Every structure is written in structure tokens, then in C-alpha cells.
From TrEMBL:
It is found in: Cytoplasm, Cytoskeleton; Membrane; Nucleus. Component of a CRL2 E3 ubiquitin-protein ligase complex, also named ECS (Elongin BC-CUL2/5-SOCS-box protein) complex, composed of CUL2, Elongin BC (ELOB and ELOC), RBX1 and substrate-specific adapter APPBP2. Interacts with APP; APP interaction inhibits the E3 ubiquitin-protein ligase activity of the CRL2(APPBP2) complex. Substrate-recognition component of a Cul2-RING (CRL2) E3 ubiquitin-protein ligase complex of the DesCEND (destruction via C-end degrons) pathway, which recognizes a C-degron located at the extreme C terminus of target proteins, leading to their ubiquitination and degradation. The C-degron recognized by the DesCEND pathway is usually a motif of less than ten residues and can be present in full-length proteins, truncated proteins or proteolytically cleaved forms. Pathway: Protein modification; protein ubiquitination. It comes from the Eukaryota. This is Amyloid protein-binding protein 2. The chain crosses the membrane at residues 21-39. Pfam families: TPR_10.
Length: 576
């Protein structure tokens, strides 16, 4: 349809007079015939003035099947400089302060509006504004010490914990979880129970982000025990996702595979293949594939997730940035042996550009994006034939790694897996910069922290051990130490991933060089054969297939997946 200026003016008057619209069809008409047309015509200032009115936007939010278009319009306004997220959050907070003395029914209606508004802002990645909305809801919940408001307070805490996790406010997230437990206890004393699946799932996400993997795994089991019939599909999908990630870092790969594949199936079946929730599951599926060494497939899955997020959100959106970062790293790993890093660098720079545009320069989300770009720049520098360009790239990589390290130490402290990873990355960089003693110091630091936190035979330990072996072998002539470290790295890699693990190539090549250096040609011949067998195994084991082929239809029900997981933990769960 094409609307004349007089028709548009009439619709504006219609909305601003706050005529009650109870018919859902009318809401769709307002959105699709008026607001979306303003977006299509590029009349963003006028669209922004309408969206910034809480009454109008609250009505538009009820048009659920137009949510993807709403995200597009909203992001366009944010990119245009219209601070619509902040305006709506402020307007809602003011409304809540005005109705503080009103009766419970008025507050309940406001809380419902707040949950929808805050949920939209959270889904769109505007976590700070969503947090403000949920805090206002929580204040309304605490004004009445009644059972209904305790249930609402728990629900509000779950939503608040989610946005604080997304915004890396982990300390506040821990406080939110404790507050939710307080309300849970109140309900329990009165013989009432609130389902804890979503709350425990969010706690698992928080602990995972802080690299407290044992605790994350423990709470993912508790979340899985809470999955029951009638639970919203979104909650089930999110719990399965978090549980899968917790299993991955505990190297419980078979469990992780079952959980994430079912999450992908559920999300696609319930929400559709173009929904942001489906992209969430794809990112976690890509994480699983990358960690089980299916690198090529992980790249394809990450690209699919990015395509969905760009289609839904577009523009400078945090969800798009995280997808760019994940794709950058998987592309970097995939192209490591070829030395072709253009695609990886593009996505890393896109991620950093978006994050720096919408978040403070010291935000923790920048740490991982800067780390990925630094890794890529280092490899480009190594292959560069211009000495001046090489030094410039290495220095840029050094600055990025140092910045990432400082952000990680500020957020997590010295004794943390994320901090250890940054030490290890600096160790590799110092080796490239020919600062060998500094490189050794960084690698040893990384190994010590990882061993204490993850154990002697973890994948992360093997990575750092292999890097130290490379330093001793190629640059410090400490062949005996290097040999021991290579053999240790190989043993861990085989144990976790099997004979065809991709990381074994670099250890085998390192041993071939080492034995050549010390004149042990029998061993050189032996490891040439080992490497040839490894190549043949890789060709058979990792032929490229469609990673989504076996998740389009799930052979198991959600109840079967949950029960299978809990039985493997020797735990009984409630019936779904």
C-alpha cells in the first residue's frame, strides 16, 4: 500500500489520542501500513518520534509476528543516532515511579509491560537499557510482600541476570541470583515452588563466562533436572545450550553433541530458521564443532548464524558483533595452515568496529575480539616479506594482546583460564618478536594457571605445552625439554580427540625438525611415517558434510534427551 501524507497524519493523530486498540489486526495495520513504511521511506526522524512514545511502542510490541521487522526498524533508528532504547527505558522507569502508590493491579499491568519491553531490548542486545527496565519492574515487585509478587520477583531476577550476563556484569549477576534465591525460599516456606530451570541456566552461563567450569557443569545438571512438561520452549532451548557448552569444556563431547543438536532442532522447529533464537543455537553448535575439531563445519555454521543475525538486526548490533567474532576465530583456525587470513581479519575488524561504536572502550567484550585480531595479525606479520610492515603488525598485535590481558585481569583476576589464555598468546607473540625469555615466561605462566584450574590433561594445557615446546625447539635449542613437551601434548590430544586431531600436525612436524637437529634420523623417518598416516586419517575422518543434516529431524523427544543426560549423571529428573 501507499499512504498519502494526509493518511499518515490521520494515523498519527489516531495513535496520539491514545484510542484504545483491542483488536490485534489493528495493531498489525498500524505497524505494517504506517511505521514500517516510514522506515522504508527513510523517514527515520518521524519514525523515531513515534517509537520514543512508550504507549505507541508498547502496542507495537504486541504484534509478535512482525518482530523481525520491528528489530530492523529499531536498529536503523539506533544507527541513525536516535537513542530510542534509552528513551523508552527512561520513560518506563518514570512511569513506575509515578505508580508506586497505586494499587496492585496497576503495578501488575506495568510489570507485564516492563517484561515485554525489557525482553525486546534484551533480545535486541541493548542490555543496559533492558537492565534499567527490569530494575524498575523489580522495585514494583518489592512494594508488596505477597506471593504473587514473589513469583514476579523471581521472574524479574531471571531476566535481570540474563542481561547482566550479556553485559559482562558478573558481580551484579551473582547478587541477582542470590536475590532470586531469597524469593524462592519465601515461596518454599509457603508451600509454593517456582520452576528453577531458567534461573539455574543463567547461573550456568555466568559461571561459564567466568571460566568456573566445574561449578557451571554442576549447575547445568540442576537446570536440566528442572526441565518439565509445559516449560516454555525458549527456556528449554537455553538450558540445553548452556548445558552443552558446560559439557564441551569438561570434554564430555558425546553429551554435548546430543544436547546442542536437540537445541538446534527445537529452535528451528518452534521459532523457524530465520529467528534469532535459532542463530543462538547455531553459535553454540559451532562452538561444539570447533572444540571437537570439525573446523570446516564450524565455519559454515558460524556463517549461517551471522547471516541470520544480520538479516534480523543489521547495523551496529552487539549480536551481530559476537557472530562476526566467532566466525573470525573459526576462520583463523581453519586457514591457519594456508596463511590466507583476509576473511578472518575482516570479521575480526567488523566485530571490534561494532563493539567500540556502541560500548565503552574498556568493555570486557572487546577482550576476545582484540585477542582474535591480534592472533591474525601475528600470522600475517610472520608471512610478510617487508620488515617494516612485519614490525608494525607485530607491534599492533602486541598492543591488542596487552589490552585484552588487562581487561581480563580486571574482570577475572590473575588466577583465571581467560587470563592464562592471554599470557599464552603473548608468549607466542614474543616468540615471533624474538623475545625468547619473555616468551618462555608467558608460556610457563599460562601452563601453571591452566594446570591448577583445569588439570594436567586438559586441551588448554596441551595447547600451551605445545607452544612452549615450539619455543624450545625452534629458537632456544633446548631439544630434550622440547621433546618431552611435544610428547605430552601429543598424548593429551590423542586422548581427547583421537588419532586424527588437527593439532597433532604441528607437534609431529616439530618432532621431525627436532630429531633432524640432533641427528636422530631413525626418529625422523618414524615421524614422517606417523605424519603420513595422520594425513590419510584426516582425509577419511573429516570429509566435509552438511553439519545440519542430522539435526533437521530429531530422533529423540526432549524428555528422552533430558533423561538420557541425567541418567549419565546418575541423577533422576522430573518427568517431562
Amino acid at each position: 500500500y501507499s499512504l498519502s501524507s494526509s493518511n499518515i497524519k490521520s494515523i498519527i493523530i489516531f495513535i496520539k489520542n491514545k484510542i484504545e486498540i483491542k483488536n490485534y489486526i489493528k495493531i498489525l495495520i498500524i505497524f505494517s501500513l504506517f511505521l514500517f513504511q516510514l522506515y522504508q521511506q527513510g523517514r527515520l526522524c518521524q519514525l523515531g518520534s513515534e517509537f520514543c512514545e512508550l504507549e505507541v511502542f508498547a502496542k507495537v510490541l504486541r504484534a509478535l509476528d512482525k518482530r523481525h521487522l520491528l528489530h530492523h526498524c529499531f536498529q536503523a533508528l539506533m544507527d541513525h543516532g536516535v537513542k530510542v532504547a534509552s528513551v523508552l527505558a527512561y520513560s518506563f522507569s518514570r512511569r513506575c515511579s509515578y505508580i508506586a502508590e497505586s494499587d496492585a493491579a496497576v503495578k501488575e499491568k506495568a510489570i507485564q509491560v516492563g517484561f515485554v519491553l525489557g525482553g525486546f531490548l534484551s533480545d535486541a542486545g541493548w542490555y543496559s537499557d533492558a537492565e534499567k527496565v527490569f530494575l524498575s519492574c523489580l522495585q514494583l515487585c518489592t512494594l508488596h510482600d505477597e506471593m504473587l509478587h514473589w513469583f514476579r520477583a523471581v521472574e524479574c531476577c531471571v531476566r535481570l541476570l540474563h542481561v547482566r550476563n550479556g553485559n559482562c556484569k558478573y558481580h551484579l549477576g551473582e547478587e541477582t541470583f542470590k536475590l532470586a534465591q531469597t524469593y524462592m525460599d519465601k515461596l518454599s516456606k509457603h508451600g509454593q515452588q517456582a520452576n528453577k530451570a531458567a534461573l539455574y541456566g543463567e547461573l550456568c552461563a555466568l559461571l561459564f563466562a567466568k571460566s568456573h567450569y566445574d561449578e557451571a557443569y554442576k549447575w547445568c545438571i540442576e537446570a536440566m533436572k528442572e526441565i518439565t512438561a509445559g516449560l516454555p520452549v525458549k527456556v528449554v532451548v537455553d538450558v540445553l545450550r548452556q548445558a552443552s557448552k558446560a559439557c564441551v569444556v569438561k570434554r564430555e563431547f558425546k553429551k554435548a553433541e546430543q544436547l546442542i543438536k536437540h537445541a538446534v532442532y527445537l529452535a528451528r522447529d518452534h521459532f523457524g530458521s530465520k529467528h534469532p533464537k535459532y542463530s543462538d543455537t547455531l553459535l553454540d553448535y559451532g562452538f561444539y564443532l570447533l572444540n571437537v575439531d570439525n573446523i570446516c563445519q564450524s565455519v559454515a555454521i558460524y556463517q549461517a548464524a551471522l547471516d541470520i543475525r544480520q538479516s534480523v538486526f543489521g547495523g551496529k548490533n552487539i549480536h551481530v558483533a559476537t557472530a562476526h567474532e566467532d566466525l573470525a576465530y573459526s576462520s583463523y583456525v581453519h586457514q591457519y595452515s594456508s596463511g590466507k587470513f583476509d576473511n578472518a581479519l575482516f570479521h575480526a575488524e567488523r566485530a571490534i568496529g561494532i563493539i567500540t561504536h556502541i560500548l565503552p572502550e574498556d568493555h570486557l567484550l572487546l577482550a576476545s575480539s582484540k585477542r582474535v585480531k591480534a592472533l591474525i595479525l601475528e600470522e600475517i606479520a610472520i608471512d610478510c616479506h617487508n620488515k617494516e610492515t612485519e614490525q608494525r603488525l607485530l607491534q599492533e598485535a602486541h598492543d591488542l594482546h596487552l589490552s585484552s590481558l588487562q581487561l581480563a585481569k580486571k574482570a577475572f583476576g590473575e588466577f583465571n583460564v581467560q587470563t592464562a589464555k592471554h599470557y599464552g598468546n603473548l608468549g607466542r607473540l614474543y616468540q615471533s618478536m624474538r623475545k625468547f625469555k619473555e616468551a618462555e615466561e608467558m608460556h610457563i605462566k599460562a601452563i601453571q594457571i591452566k594446570e591448577q584450574l583445569l588439570g594436567q590433561e586438559d586441551y588448554e594445557v596441551a595447547l600451551s605445552v605445545g607452544h612452549l615446546a615450539s619455543l624450545y625447539n625452534y629458537d632456544m635449542n633446548q631439544y630434550e625439554n622440547a621433546e618431552k613437551l611435544y610428547l605430552r601434548s601429543i598424548a593429551i590430544g590423542k586422548k581427547l580427540f583421537g588419532e586424527g586431531y588437527s593439532g597433532l600436525e604441528y607437534d609431529y612436524r616439530g618432532l621431525i625438525k627436532l630429531y633432524n637437529s640432533i641427528g636422530n634420523y631413525e626418529k625422523v623417518f618414524e615421524y614422517h611415517n606417523v605424519l603420513s598416516n595422520w594425513n590419510r586419517l584426516r582425509d577419511r575422518q573429516y570429509s566435509v558434510t552438511d553439519a545440519l543434516e542430522d539435526v533437521n529431524t530429531s530422533p529423540q523427544s526432549t524428555e528422552e534427551v533430558v533423561q538420557s543426560f541425567l541418567i549419565s549423571q546418575n541423577v533422576e529428573g522430573p518427568s517431562c
